Amino acid sequence: MIALGIETSCDETGVALYCDSGLLGHRLYSQADMHALYGGVVPELASRDHVRRLLPLLRELLASSGIGPGDIGGVAYTAGPGLLGALLVGAAFGRSLAWAWGLPAVAVHHLEGHLLAPMLEPDPPAYPFLALLVSGGHTMLVEVLALGRYRVLGDTLDDAAGEAFDKTAKLLGLGYPGGPALARLAEQGQSGRFRFPRPMTDRPGLELSFSGLKTAALQTWKSLPGSAQDRADVARAFEEAVVDTLSVKCSRALALSGLQRLVVAGGVGANLRLRQRLVALAAEAGIAVHYPRPELCTDNAAMIAYAGWCRLRAGAADGLAIIARARWPLEAIGGPQPAP
Ligand code: KG4
Ligand code: ZN
Which residues pair with 27 in a beta bridge? Predict the structure, then answer.
């Protein structure tokens, strides 16, 4: 069975095809250059651009994979959480295609896509596993028990890790989206010149908080003459603080849950220093660590096609409603539901 996946929850338009033997292909169009002009995502512009991009992207994917509508067994679209207007574009597109082609459609939770992205790799983790989900909108430690069964062990009280990367990058004048730019700059930074707090590591529990860290970076940056080296050193200190904090919380969650596998998912999972740290941590703890390749850490439709394929294969279908939810708690998803 081939599932078509559609992703439009934020500023990336994605389409993908997943079949029983793996990923057939995926296409991604990033709107980043357009939003960069405004210093962040402009929701209305995002929605309009998804409208423009979806059909050409899908045509290109079908042509390059040699797949026609008759080969496809179901459509999976990201139904939330995300920007409502942007979600509605993909949901209306996906649900309508499924109707026109006489296929079932399933609404996929964006974070389920991220959590299951390592399943697209050659050595996928077995359930259950601990996932560190670090994206632009979320920072969570999740116990992944099975498809649709997720238990949130820890969450951020304020900013998400990616959001903190982006805001700190912005205050350092690095533009948008700043996470990858800040990470590149940190490479030139001197370790140890500044030390920022490791929020909430001094007390028990798995909650996280990143807004104070951004403020610490701002105050330090403002107190400096502002040379290129100053900027790189602040970036380095910020990245080290985020990586340290996430690594402390991960080892705590592994100890508390007794889970033997760790998955790192979401856009910040593309961060090299974080990857290296968690690989070291896993080696010390004698557990396996799994990452999607960087291209599948950030938003993409391959992960949506995979999650949808799992659900469709289990007989799930969502009826004719076009489903879009700006907010959608991860623990509320549940397993695959048969057609109503
Ligand atoms: O998962 P994602 O593509 O979108 C959301 O669902 O939020 O994550 C995007 C986030 C952005 O905040 C971006 O700055 C961050 O991931 N990011 C990074 C890196 N690559 C992307 N942050 C730090 N280092 C990176 N290499
Ligand atoms: Zn995402």
Answer: 15
Please name the amino acid found at residue 82.
G
Place of tokens 């030139």: 188
What are 53-99's pLDDT values in tens digits? 999 999 999 999 999 999 999 999 999 999 999 999 999 999 999 99
Are 39 and 108 a contacting pair, CB within 8 Å? no
- Compute the distance between CA of residue 233 and CA of residue 193 in angstroms, rounded to an integer: 7
- Which of ligand 1's atoms lies nearest the C-alpha of 163? 12
Q: Is the CB of 135 under 6 A from ligand 1?
A: yes
Interatomic CA distance for residues 228 and 132, integer angstroms: 32
Q: Please give the domain boundaries of the chain with CATH numbers for all domains.
A: 3-115+296-332 (3.30.420.40), 126-291 (3.30.420.40)
Decide whether any atom of ligand 1 lies within 6 Å of the 78 Cβ: no
Contact between 95 and 105 under an 8 Å Cβ cutoff? The reply is yes
Measured in Å, residue 9 CA sits from the centre of ligand 2 at 8
pLDDT tens for each residue of 249-269: 999 999 999 999 999 999 999
DSSP 3-state of 262: strand
